[in-house]
Every structure is written in structure tokens, then in C-alpha cells.
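Priority: medium. Attachment 1 of 2:
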């Protein structure tokens, strides 16, 4: 494909903005439009559950770029303009206000939508956390001494529990998994996180199923578990996972490429190894499910580093590079004074071996091994060492044959 004259990016956040910037860096001089359903210029999400929720950062600090850099991008930002339909053959997107935007190349960068519990929408005091406005609304409800129940023991739920506990709330973390992050990082790390949260005074009710939220007079009063136990609450955070924000593509004629169905069963945009979903249509960031050639399988990553790295590949491919995207996955999480870095594909099924430091001292690095091969690296308060270990143990070659 020769360089397009116009590029439309749907979703103006980490992945969408990085794609726009990479296009300009590679010399693209055509029209550039970024569309977003939300009212804000691009901002960063990782601080929302940490510094913003803790009140340590003013909301303005999460802006990804200052006005001068956005101006220099020479792009049109159309905010508060949700895409509602795609005509893939014409590469045209219809927005909620009825605008129809056509471009030579389209990039789908719409991220995720948080899953909700039945009945939560009618109850005050119940929150999800995905946007800046979500974070500010939750922050207003987090007053010391109040009872918070966080439903969901994954990364987001555990981070919210940690931040709220530091603010002096009475916090219960409830979820189906046996330990915080155990389903992502395995039992050894999960047990250590259980101890960390327990020592800080977070009550753990794990390995349980939530049956319903209870309320009185429109205000949440608790979380009922299967079996009848009621966890009393003034505030509830629902962090039970997210779905790719592809509702707007349902009913659209996203035809896919040969062998690609358009959307995956999980709702991600199905792409080939070049992050291409159809001729002239690409996906990037949390929403994109692409064929990782090194791993020989489809992958969809929900993390910040991927949003930036995948954007570089997408921009290059839009401009004709024909380059597969084969990253070593990476995410981090901060809880209290714990900084965890995870590289590769950690899994509960893998065997964990400590390489450096000591889990009892809460400072160590470890390797995940499956079938004798290193598949992941974790650092617990040892970020630099984890990075070095990743380079030694998880070269593209090693991951490719995992
Ligand atoms: C609270 C929180 C904490 C996090 N912490 C970490 C962390 O510590 N480490 C880490 O690695 N990752 C973390 N992440 C994940 C990281 O922020 C995401 O991976 C990253 O934001 C993905 O970028 P994205 O651009 O693909 O999606 P998003 O940032 O979700 O952006 C998608 C954009 O698309 C827009 N959009 C959606 N639908 C439409 C539509 N129909 N039309 C137009 N626009 C639309 C949305 O408004 C949004 O602006 C965290 C995420 C959250 C929410």
C-alpha cells in the first residue's frame, strides 16, 4: 500500500495518540483525525488507580501531552464523538452526531469497557474505574472510615484496595480467585500479595462468588455472596474485568481478511500479524487481538506498554512497512510500596524459581518455566534486575519457542 492521504483513528488515548505521533515521525504528512467518545484530550490511565485516586496528583497531570505538542501534531481531535458504525468497504465511520468520516486508512483504538454487575447502575456508591471521570467520582466517595468492598481480585481491584486502604478506608477485597492476581501470576505471587494486603489491614474474602449488590433508598448497602453472607458497604468498586469496546462494530460489515472473522469470540478486533483487520483497517492497543508470529498464537494485551509499542508497528505498516508485531509482553502494578514488573507470559501453570533476592524480604526476581522453557520473568521491588533478567532469559528466540 502506498502512503495514504488521510488516516482516521477511532479512540484518542494511549494507543491512538501514539499511532498518530508515530505516523508523523515516519514522515506522514496527510490528514490526521482522532475521534473519541470521551470529552478529554488524551490522558494516561495507570495513575487513575494510584496517584489520582490517592489525591496525590491533580487531574491535569494525567494529560499525555501538553497543548503545544498536540498542536504540533497537526491533527484534528473530535471529542465527545462516539463512533457508532463502520462501513469497512468505504472506510467510513459514522459518529453519534451523524457525521460520516471517510479515510484511506482507519485505526481502531477503542480500548475496553468495564464489565458491570447486574443492578449496579441504579445504585449510588457503586463504581467502575476506566476513565478520568470514573476516578474523580470514586475519589469523592473514598473518605476515611467508610466501608469499601472491592469486587474483583485482579490487578485493578488489588490496586484500588491498596490505594483506598492507604486513605484510611475499611477495605474488603472479594473475588472468585483464591489470591490477588493469582490467576495472572500464580499462587506464589498471589499468596505474597494476600499477605501484603492482610498486613495492611485489607480483609480478603476470596474464592467466593458475588450474588448481588444490596441497596436501600437508591444507595448501595452491601455485597451479598453466594451462600448468603453479606459484606456491608458504603462504597463498592466493581473490578470484574473488561470487554473490548467493539459494540459499535457489531452490525458493521467488518469483513476481516482471509481467515479472519472480524471480531474474535472475546470481542477483540481480529488482526493478522501486521495488526491489520481488513484492507486499510488496523487495530491497536487493548482492543486488538493479533497473531503473534513469534508465539504462533493470537494475543490481546491489556497493558500500557503494549499500547505504545503496537502503535509503532501499526504506523509503520500503514506506511507500507509490512512488519510483524512480535513484542515481549510487559506490565507493571504498584500496590502500597510494592512494585511488580512482569515480562513475557507468566501463568499459574508455570513453575516459579527465585533467581535473585528473597520473597521473605519482599525483594526478588523469579523466572516462570513451562515445559523446561522460560516463559516469564517477574520482579518484586527489583525493576532493573527484572529487566536485565528479561533480556537474558526472554530473548525473542526463547519466547518464540515457548
Ligand atoms: C485504572 C487503570 C489503571 C491501569 N494501570 C496499569 C498499570 O499499572 N500498568 C499497565 O501496564 N497498564 C495499566 N492499565 C492499562 C492501560 O492503561 C491500558 O492498557 C491502556 O490505556 C490502553 O490504551 P488504549 O489506547 O488501547 O485504550 P484506552 O486507554 O482504553 O483508550 C480507548 C479510547 O477509545 C475511546 N473510545 C471507546 N469507544 C469509542 C467509540 N465508540 N468511539 C470513539 N472513541 C471510543 C475511549 O473514550 C478511550 O479514550 C490501567 C488501566 C486502568 C483503567
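Attachment 2 of 2:
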Amino acid at each position: 500500500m502506498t502512503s495514504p492521504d488521510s488516516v482516521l483513528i477511532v479512540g484518542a488515548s494511549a494507543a491512538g495518540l501514539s499511532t498518530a505521533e508515530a505516523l508523523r515521525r515516519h514522515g506522514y504528512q496527510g490528514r490526521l483525525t482522532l475521534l473519541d467518545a470521551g470529552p478529554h484530550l488524551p490522558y494516561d490511565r495507570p495513575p487513575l488507580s494510584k496517584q489520582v485516586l490517592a489525591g496525590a496528583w491533580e487531574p491535569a497531570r494525567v494529560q499525555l501531552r501538553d497543548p503545544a505538542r498536540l498542536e504540533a501534531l497537526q491533527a484534528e481531535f473530535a471529542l465527545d464523538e462516539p463512533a457508532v458504525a463502520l462501513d469497512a468497504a468505504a472506510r467510513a465511520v459514522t459518529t453519534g452526531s451523524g457525521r460520516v468520516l471517510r479515510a484511506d486508512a482507519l485505526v481502531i483504538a477503542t480500548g475496553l469497557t468495564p464489565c458491570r454487575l447486574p443492578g449496579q447502575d441504579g445504585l449510588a456508591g457503586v463504581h467502575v474505574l476506566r476513565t478520568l471521570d470514573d476516578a474523580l467520582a470514586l475519589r469523592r466517595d473514598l473518605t476515611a472510615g467508610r466501608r469499601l468492598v472491592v469486587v474483583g481480585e485482579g490487578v485493578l481491584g488489588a490496586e484500588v484496595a491498596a490505594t483506598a486502604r492507604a486513605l484510611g478506608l475499611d477495605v474488603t477485597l472479594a473475588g472468585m480467585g483464591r489470591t490477588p492476581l493469582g490467576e495472572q501470576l500464580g499462587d506464589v505471587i498471589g499468596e505474597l500479595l494476600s499477605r501484603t494486603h492482610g498486613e495492611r489491614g485489607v480483609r480478603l474474602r476470596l474464592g467466593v462468588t458475588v450474588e448481588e449488590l444490596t441497596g436501600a433508598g437508591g444507595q448501595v448497602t452491601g455485597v451479598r455472596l453466594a451462600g448468603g453472607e453479606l459484606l456491608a458497604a458504603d462504597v463498592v468498586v466493581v473490578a470484574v474485568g473488561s470487554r473490548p469496546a467493539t459494540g459499535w462494530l457489531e452490525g458493521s460489515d467488518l469483513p476481516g481478511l482471509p481467515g479472519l472473522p472480524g471480531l474474535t469470540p472475546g470481542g477483540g478486533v481480529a488482526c493478522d500479524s501486521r495488526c491489520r483487520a481488513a484492507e486499510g483497517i488496523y487495530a491497536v492497543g487493548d482492543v486488538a487481538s493479533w497473531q503473534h508470529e513469534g508465539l504462533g498464537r493470537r494475543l490481546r494485551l491489556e497493558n500500557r506498554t503494549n499500547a505504545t509499542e503496537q502503535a509503532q508497528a501499526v504506523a509503520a505498516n500503514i506506511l507500507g512497512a509490512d512488519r510483524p508485531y512480535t513484542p515481549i509482553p510487559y506490565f507493571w502494578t504498584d500496590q502500597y510500596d510494592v512494585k511488580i514488573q512482569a515480562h513475557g507470559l507468566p501463568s499459574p501453570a508455570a513453575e516459579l524459581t527465585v533467581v535473585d533476592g528473597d520473597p521473605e524480604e519482599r525483594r526478588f526476581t523469579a523466572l516462570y518455566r513451562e515445559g523446561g522453557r522460560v516463559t516469564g520473568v517477574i520482579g518484586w521491588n527489583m525493576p532493573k534486575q527484572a529487566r536485565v533478567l528479561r533480556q537474558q532469559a526472554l530473548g525473542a528466540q526463547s519466547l518464540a519457542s515457548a
